[in-house]
Amino acid sequence: MSRAIVILGQGRSGTSITAGILHSLGVFVGDAPSRYYEDGAFYNVHKAMVGDWRNPQLDALPQHLDRYRALVAKRQEYDLWGLKDPRLCFTFPVLLPLLDDTDVRIIYTSRPIKDIARSLGTYPGVESRAEAKRIAERYKVALAQTKMIVPKAWPTMTLYYNALIRDPRKQVGRLARFVGVSVVEEAIALVKTSE
Prior knowledge:
By secondary structure, the chain is of the alpha/beta class. The chain contains nine helices and four strands. The protein has helices at 15-24, 40-50, 62-75, 88-95, 113-120, 129-149, 161-166, 168-179, 185-194, and strands at 2-8, 80-84, 102-110, 156-160. Strands 2-1-3-4 form a four-stranded parallel β-sheet. The protein is globular. It starts with a strand and ends with a helix.
């Protein structure tokens, strides 16, 4: 059975560094993942399903579902794979039924909302602090709703961004144990170089 590691967290909460660590630990996150460790094919279907990331609205039209189903089926050919995109806060209800024959583990990323909003305020396309706060709050609500539908039988862990930056070795060790792989120094070094 394929094992999927799904990262659920809003943008600027540590989703990219978490996916980067997983990639360093040998988790397949895509053929040519972006610098944010997002698979381009999933990114495109998520974008089609929610539109502008600053004002997401879920649109689960049949053509999106067919593409999503095909992408998940292709990923399930791997023994160990991961998926990261902050839009999963909105698209996860569509993904959920496609993971029936998969050993799924969920990693929640967490960072104080004020820090997320401050970081978003420096992001290209975000025009004001007020907009950054509104986006952060929107994703926070969506993530809370998504957490409520995650099956209780699925193992979950929360990775706190600030704890990861303070003690990369300990937190990367936690991640590795949760995923079921061995720690490699490259994964720890990735955190140190991203600070």
